[in-house]
Design a protein that fits this description.
about 35% helix, 4 domains, flat, 6-stranded mixed beta sheet, Heat Shock Protein 90
Length: about 575
Amino acid sequence: MDLDSALHLILTSKTSAAKIESSSLEFKQEKREKKETFQDIAEASVCFANGAGGKIILGVSDRGTGSDAFLGTDIEADVMKERIYALTQPSLLVTLEEMTTADVRLLIIDVPAGLDVYQTHKTAPTRRLGDQCLVLLPAEVGRLNDERRGADWSADASGRPLEDILPLALVRLRGLLSQTTSPGLRSLAEAGVDEMLTSLRFIHQDGTLTRAAEIMLCGSTQGLPDTLVVYQHRSTTGGEADFVRRWGAPLVQAFPEIMDVIANRIGITPVTTGSGQQIQIEDYPLAAIREALANALMHGDHRESRPVSIEHSPELLTVRSPGPLVTGVLPTNILTHPSKPRFRHLADVFRNIGLAEQLGQGVDRMFREMIRSGRAVPSVEEVSEGQDTLITFTGGPPNSRVARFLATLPLAEQNDTDTLLVTTVLCEKRTITASSISNVLQRSVEATESILRRLATGEAHLLEPTAGTSSRRHPSYRLQRTALVALGPALRYQKRSVNESDAKIVEHVKDYGQINSRTVQRLFDLDVFQARDLLRDLLGRELLIRISEQSRGTAVRYGPGPKFPLKKARPKPGPAPDETLF
């Protein structure tokens, strides 16, 4: 949420500041003493600097609402900037600006993501997690320090000689290289061992294997955990595990085996589109699970000596990896943030041999595949106070109507994450605006508006601006009628009770004496088959009967049946009272 929107919500008493604080926004009010205020702001600044940065608004109570919440401040911007610099170690530079809201002066402290690990002279380093500042443990300080300095644990020497490479792992590596799209990498599949390992940067300058090479090609030793991945399957989410398996290094052997084990426990639902094409909907799209597993193994912190954990049931599938998201990457920007691996060398290895997507498209693919299969988008969150990263996929029966509709879109839109997210939201809400959906797309309002306009005017013809807002800079958009008809019952706001449908049809027949399939389609935004089923139900309940000679097709006419609710006759007025009696 942008700052102007947040301040407007507080001013109009729609929420308090505390309820809209986030990983990048915090509200503060002055303490009794100025030096207490400076220390408080310095600590909040450190918390943001050790994360992805953020804004601190001084002069707003985090509890009140309306104009009463705007307390203001008289602290000069230059003074605050100097005190933050002096109270932090290393000294932290921030940007400040003043603004007036509700007739009071506010101070906006803009804290950038830092280049180091920061703390105040009085407190330990902290990091922002959601709307909280958590103290960093020593291991977390070391991890953050490595990220900020660009140190790459996976590129360091493992101390293991080339002779420790398992023969079968070498065969698997050649097989993976032979399947890549890069001619240069494919040629390595036939190269000598030394040339192949040197080209993949698997050999450290001291002549031993890198840690990435050790994980990918060697067996477990004292320096490498016995278990890198644990898989558990349950018949129900809360039930006992009915299958458990563990894998250690080498990962070139373990990765395809893990995917095979998951695939063997995933069912398929066939769905036929309107054009007759049959699509196969998996309980959990394997392409999405593959990317989740690759991300967990690439970005999980192997220094923690804790395995990646996969929990699989028909209702939920979770992938939990050790360590938080890489600094700067948040659940709220993970779709649009540039790729930022924790261990660049290990990530390059995964991508070069085809175990992960190039160009950081793995998370995008997870979202796309889940939506295209008629399911909810996966959730990505930090859990256990930021010690682990959890990706959750929701299973259950797919929404085949959504999957069928998305399969009819132009191919470019089927593969566009923004298009799929917009469609998902419009299955829940009748209209959207750029500002209301920008957080879902994780883009600016202007970029979101550009996407919505493309979907309204481009090849997809998915959206249209509403009549009353079409001339606005940011109109309200809704699905076009063809999309409404195709999605039908998948739209939450299109669902009507039997009584509502009956009442609307009865009213039409009373007014016009008849109804046909085309009219039913227009009344309820249905396709021909849905209209047919609705009319059959009304015929079966004898609310309607066929009144035309034609018995097939959309032009068949229907009129009142034996149980059609007729208008009640008004009682005839009685004789006028004899006024002489009164």
